[in-house]
Amino acid sequence: MQKVLTEMNVQLANVISDISGLTGLAIIQAILAGEQDRYKLADLADVRIQASREEIARSLEGNSRKELLFILQQELNLLSDLSAADRRMRLRSTCI
Questions:
Q1: Cα-flanking dihedrals φ and ψ of residue 12, to 5°?
Q2: What letter does residue 16 receive in the DSSP assignment?
Q3: pLDDT score of 48
Q4: N or C end of the chain: smaller count of CB under 10 Å?
Q5: 3-state SS string over 51-77?
Q6: Can you tell me the mean pLDDT for 6-20?
Q7: What is the band of 96 on the pLDDT scale with cuts at 50, 70, 90?
Q8: Contacts of 64 (CB under 8 A, 6+ apart)
Q9: Of 51, 65, 59, which Cα lies nearest the Cα of 11?
């Protein structure tokens, strides 16, 4: 996902440590839902994020080309599928 975000000129990894964490996923999902206001996106940051609202908003100045949004959505779907598979494996291993 990071590579696509970089191609979109979205520098989210500069202000949050884990783009697949709570804040990163919330912002990515909002971008995919069509939100383009970088301050509204910055408002999705968890209170534990140390970067200011302004710093987060600056990192979100980018473009929303359709082909990049499509790839980002596919990568988000893959991450979700892998997370679900990991949960199933962990559950199965505790049952054995």
A1: -60, -35
A2: -
A3: 93
A4: C
A5: CCHHHHHHHCCCCCCHHHHHHHHHHHH
A6: 92
A7: low
A8: 8, 31, 36
A9: 59
Residue pLDDT, tens place only, 76-91:
999 887 777 767 787 7
**Could you give the C-alpha distances from 74 to 4, 49, 91, in angstroms and in order?**
11, 26, 26
| Closest-CA residue to 28 (of 81, 67, 64) | 64
CA-nearest of 66, 20, 62, 60 to 40 is 60
Quote the CA–CA distance of 12 and 90 in Å, as a whole number.
30
Give the three-state DSSP class for 89. Answer: helix
* Prediction pTM value: 0.84
86 vs 91: CA distance, rounded Å: 9
Both tokens assigned to 96 = 């054995």
pLDDT of residue 30 exceeding 80, the answer is yes
